[in-house]
Amino acid sequence: MPSAVDQHRAAAEVRPARWPALAIALGLAAALLSADQLAKEWALRSLTPGRSVPFVGELLQFRLLFNSGAAFSLGTGYTWIFSMLAIAAVIGIAAYALPRLRHPAWAVAIGLLLAGIGGNLVDRIARPPAPLRGEVVDLLQLPNWPIFNLADVWICSAAVLIIAMSIFLRRGLDGRLITDDATGSRAEKAATG
Predict the structure, then answer these.
(1) Is 174 a catalytic residue?
(2) What are phi and psi of 53, to 5 degrees?
(3) Model-level pTM?
């Protein structure tokens, strides 16, 4: 008969299937990346740079801005560095997170993150003035806040979900409970008597 420790280890090894989480992450990333690019194309066709158009009164307005820097227009002139960092981030997510992904909430977080990074990366690669130096299209404005786009919303949403999963719910990419060594050792000692 297996010991309590063996049963505990066997239960810890049970993991959900990888494909549903992977499908959620990649499907969500594709849909949200498309939404970001469609919103940017609409802004380019419909808005005049520098002119605000009320959407929800003064709370949310549309305003077209071209950003060659990072968040809050920091680092203008270093667009190619941000492009390379974004490419590295997408490769890192594909190499590290996607193979381990099994939890649906993590799948949503990874999908949001890929859509956000990808949305701004597409701008940096495909928009003027040159590949890897393109300006990001920003179009949403809140009071007393820098102008942003949907890709920025996806990145911030992913960050909140990643923090919640890692720190508050203590779940890893595969859905397993994250335990520190001391807690795990105490659990094994208690199980063995």
Answers:
(1) no
(2) -125, 115
(3) 0.83
